[in-house]
Amino acid sequence: MNSIEIKHLTKKYKTFTLDDISLSVPKGYIMGFIGENGAGKTTTIKSMLNIAKRDKGEITILAQDIDQHEIEIKSKIGYVSGDVFYPKKTIKEITKYVKRFYNEWDDKAYDSYLDQFKLDPNKKIDELSKGMQLKYLITLALSHHAKLLILDEPTSGLDPVARDNLLELFQTIIEKEETTIFFSTHITSDLEKCADYITFIKEGKIVESSSKDDLIDSYRYVSGTEKDLESMKDRLISFKTHAFGFNGLIKTEDVKKTDVAKIGQPTLDDIMIFYASHRGVLL
Amino acid sequence: MKNLIFKELGLSINKFFYLLPIVLGALFFIPNWIYLLVFYYFFWISVPQIFGAYLQHGDYHLLSLLPIKRKDIASSKIYALFIIEGLHLVFAVIFGLVHISIYGGWNFFFDINVAFYGIGILLFGVFNISFLPAYFKTAHFFGRPLIFASLTTLIYGFIFEFGIVKYQFMRDIFEGPINTQIIAFVVSAVLGVILSVVALRISQKRMMEIDL
Question: Rounded to two decimals, what is the model's pTM?
Answer without folding.
Answer: 0.85
